[in-house]
Design goal:
This is AraC family transcriptional regulator. It holds the Pfam family HTH_18. InterPro entries: AraC-bd (IPR003313), AraC_XylS_family_regulators (IPR050204), Homeodomain-like_sf (IPR009057), HTH-like (IPR037923), HTH_AraC (IPR018060), HTH_AraC-typ_CS (IPR018062). Keywords: Activator, DNA-binding, Transcription, Transcription regulation. This protein has 267 residues and is α+β, with helices and mostly antiparallel strands. Helices cover 43% and strands 22% of the residues. The protein has ten helices and ten strands. The protein has helices at 89-95, 112-121, 131-148, 162-174, 182-189, 193-204, 208-225, 230-236, 242-253, 257-265, and strands spanning 5-8, 15-23, 25-30, 35-42, 44-49, 52-57, 61-64, 70-74, 79-87, 108-109. A six-stranded antiparallel beta sheet has the order 1-2-9-4-7-10. α4 (162-174) packs across α5 and α4 runs parallel beside α7 (208-225). 39% of the residues are buried. Residues 153-158 have low confidence and may be disordered.
């Protein structure tokens, strides 16, 4: 019997935690609109990223950037377990006083300070973190990523229409149950659709469309983990049908909704 398992808490104030273990194949190629900061607990975690096959071993830390495709599987014929924090790039930038999100060139490293921070973030997992604990963690990981980044804090946000794209982002979150039109975002933000796309990516590391699709998929993901039928979850998250959900779900999470249901319910 497979011992593969995923446990995931609810995203709160720019942070979400995941704990998982796998033997063999874990995820197909996919990408997130968040940073992924992880710690391998045991085994070898291999993944394709930026054109190369990477490997993370016990107590190594990995940093994955928003919108960067990656997959996942066990290396060296064994099993692996890991913890991952998904961090909103907007929250990271806010913690850095508006600086652009840090760029970490090397995805895998021995980084004991970050490993300890991840350990602390999971002390009471999956119990919900308190708000001020989340604030402290985001600030800490922001500083740790700057330390690993390719230079000093970048001030690229001075040229970003931050208030405009934040209004658009908030609107996309509020309307995550349906498809939003370009004209609506133009009215909300005050920017034309092409300027909005450019500024949105500079601020948040992804496109408005991918961001909203991610919100809808997280809504479906939580419902499926609670036992809601796939067809019902698809409709509630604004997808045309179950197959439509399945295509987007696999692209976002690297597993199908059916496999996610099995993994998240396993004890």
């Amino acid at each position: 019997m497979s011992t593969d398992q995923i446990r995931l808490d609810q995203p709160t104030d720019g942070l979400q935690r995941l704990a998982a273990r796998f033997s063999g194949h874990a995820y197909d190629l996919h990408r997130h609109e968040t940073y992924g900061i992880g710690l391998t607990l045991y085994g070898v975690q291999q993944f394709h990223y930026r054109g190369s096959l990477r490997a993370s071993r016990a107590r190594q830390v990995l940093v994955l950037h928003p919108d960067e495709p990656h997959d996942g599987h066990a290396g060296e014929g064994g099993a692996f377990a890991y913890r991952m924090l998904y961090l909103d790039p907007a929250a990271i930038s806010q913690a850095l006083d508006g600086a652009g999100p840090p760029y970490v060139a090397e995805p895998v490293a021995h980084d004991e300070a970050t490993a300890r921070a991840i350990d602390e973030a999971f002390v009471d997992f999956p119990r919900q973190l308190e708000p001020i604990a989340i604030d402290a963690l985001i600030g800490r990981f922001a500083d740790l990523m700057v330390r690993r980044s390719d230079g000093e804090r970048r001030r690229s946000r001075r040229n970003v229409a931050l208030r405009a794209v934040t209004r658009a982002r908030d609107f996309l979150v509020a309307e995550s149950h349906r498809v939003v039109g370009s004209e609506e975002l133009e009215r909300v933000s005050g920017l034309d659709r092409f300027a909005l796309a450019r500024h949105f990516r500079s601020a948040f590391g992804t496109s408005p469309h991918r961001f909203q699709t991610g919100q809808r998929l997280m809504r479906a993901q939580a419902m499926i983990a609670e036992g809601v039928a796939l067809s019902e979850a698809a409709a509630a998250a604004g997808f045309a049908d179950q197959s439509h959900l399945t295509r987007h779900f696999a692209a976002r999470f690297g597993v199908t909704p059916g496999r996610w249901a099995a993994l998240s319910r396993r004890s």
